[in-house]
Design a protein that fits this description.
By secondary structure, the chain is α+β, with helices and mostly antiparallel strands. It contains one helix and three strands.
Length: 74
């Protein structure tokens, strides 16, 4: 049955919202990832022996019509 599955895409590409049904997707913050990577590279060039703490870049979950309510587990 259609209500028994969830379909999720990745990237939140143009048109994901316009599909029928609208596609639930994960939006990846590519610019943030690139900016943080550039900062780390520049820091390592300037201070190669310095350790760097990891920084998380959190993606956005765009919930649309291809995902149902969460189940209680089975």
């Amino acid at each position: 049955m259609p209500d028994d599955i969830t379909v999720t895409g990745i990237g939140d590409f143009k048109g994901s919202r316009e599909f029928e049904p609208a596609l639930t997707t994960v939006r990846i913050p590519a610019r943030q990832i690139g900016a943080k990577a550039a900062d780390v590279i520049a820091h390592k060039i300037i201070t190669p022996d310095d350790s760097i703490e990891g920084q998380l870049v959190v993606p956005d979950l765009m919930v649309r019509n291809t995902s149902g309510p969460p189940s209680s587990g089975a």
